[in-house]
C-alpha cells in the first residue's frame, strides 16, 4: 500500500487552520498544511499544542507521526508574521516555540518526523525533537541554516541536537556550518533512520514505528522518565535560561521598529 493511499484512507479526526489530525490504527498523524511552507507562528503553535493534548488524552494511542504537505515538512519560523507583531509578541512567541520544542522532545509516546520535503531552520529543529526521522529520498533537504541567516541557535536547542547527533562531524556540519543534507546524506550521517520514495514513505514509517512499539506499546510514564534522563542536559539549560536567553534569541529577528519599542518599554518579565 502506498503512502498516499494510507493517508487518504485515514479519516481526519480534527482539522484546524494549517493542521489536520487523524489516527491510522493506533498511531496519531499530524499533517502540517499551513500554506506552502508550513511556517510556524503563535496560532500554529496553539493549534498544534491543542492536538497534542487530544493525543495525550487518548490512552489507546501508541505513537505520533508528524508530516507536512506539498514540498515542505516545514520551512521554519513565520518571519513575515513576526515582522508585523509587537516586540513583546515576538518575545512571547519564542518562549512559546521553545516550550513547544521541549514538549515534543519529552513527549510520552514514540515520535516520528516523516519529512516529506524540505525541513529548514525551525522546521529542522522541530524534526530533531522527534525520536525518529524518516525522509523522502526523492526530494528535500534537512538543514539547520541559522548560521547562514546570521542567527544563533540558543544553548537549549544546540544541546538537544547534540544529544541526537553526538559531537562528531554530523553535529558540526549541521549546526555550526549549516550544511544541507539530502536524504541519502542524512542517512549516511545517522541524522535520519530511513529514507524512501514519497510513494512508500508513510507505509515504511508506520511499519518502522509498529515494529518498535510491538503489540503492547510503551508505558508512557516509563518512556517519559527515560526521555527526561537522556535529555537532562538540554532540560537543565532550558530551565536555567528560561527568560533572558529567550529574549536574546527573539531580538535577532526584531525589525527596527521592534528594537525601538523594546528600548522604550524594556523587556517584559
From TrEMBL:
Membrane-spanning intervals of the chain: 105-128
User: What are its GO cellular component terms?
Assistant: peroxisome
Q: Does the keyword Lipid metabolism apply?
A: yes
A Pfam match is ECH_1
Question: Which keywords describe this protein according to UniProt?
Answer: Lipid metabolism, Membrane, Transmembrane, Transmembrane helix
GO terms (BP aspect): fatty acid beta-oxidation
Which Gene Ontology terms cover its molecular function?
delta(3)-delta(2)-enoyl-CoA isomerase activity
UniProt catalytic activity: a (3Z)-enoyl-CoA = a 4-saturated (2E)-enoyl-CoA; a (3E)-enoyl-CoA = a 4-saturated (2E)-enoyl-CoA
Question: Know the name of this protein?
Answer: Leucine rich repeat protein
Q: What organism is recorded for this protein?
A: Plakobranchus ocellatus
Amino acid at each position: 500500500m502506498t503512502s498516499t493511499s494510507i493517508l487518504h484512507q485515514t479519516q481526519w479526526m480534527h482539522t484546524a487552520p494549517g493542521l489536520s489530525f487523524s489516527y491510522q490504527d493506533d498511531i496519531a498523524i499530524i499533517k502540517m498544511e499551513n500554506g506552502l511552507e508550513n511556517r510556524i507562528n503563535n496560532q500554529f503553535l496553539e493549534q498544534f499544542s491543542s492536538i497534542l493534548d487530544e493525543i495525550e488524552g487518548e490512552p489507546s494511542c501508541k505513537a505520533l507521526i508528524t508530516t507536512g504537505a506539498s514540498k515542505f515538512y516545514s520551512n521554519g519560523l513565520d518571519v513575515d508574521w513576526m515582522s508585523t507583531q509587537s516586540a513583546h509578541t515576538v518575545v512571547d512567541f519564542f518562549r512559546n516555540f521553545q516550550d513547544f520544542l521541549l514538549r515534543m522532545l519529552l513527549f510520552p509516546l514514540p515520535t516520528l518526523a516523516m519529512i516529506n520535503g524540505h525541513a529548514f531552520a525551525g522546521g529542522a529543529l522541530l524534526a530533531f525533537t522527534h525520536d525518529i526521522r524518516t525522509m523522502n529520498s526523492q526530494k528535500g533537504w534537512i538543514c539547520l541554516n541559522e548560521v547562514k541567516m546570521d542567527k544563533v541557535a540558543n544553548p537549549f536547542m544546540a544541546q538537544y541536537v547534540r544529544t541526537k547527533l553526538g559531537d562528531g562531524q554530523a553535529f558540526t556540519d549541521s549546526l555550526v556550518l549549516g550544511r544541507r543534507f539530502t536524504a541519502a546524506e542524512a542517512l549516511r550521517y545517522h541524522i535520519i533512520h530511513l529514507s524512501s520514495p514519497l510513494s512508500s514513505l508513510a507505509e515504511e514509517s508506520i511499519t518502522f514505528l509498529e515494529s518498535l512499539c510491538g503489540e503492547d506499546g510503551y508505558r508512557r510514564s516509563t518512556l517519559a522518565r527515560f526521555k527526561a534522563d537522556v535529555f537532562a542536559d538540554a532540560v537543565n539549560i532550558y530551565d536555567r535560561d528560561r527568560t533572558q536567553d529567550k529574549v536574546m534569541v527573539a531580538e535577532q529577528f526584531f525589525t527596527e521598529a521592534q528594537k525601538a519599542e523594546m528600548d522604550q518599554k524594556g523587556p517584559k518579565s
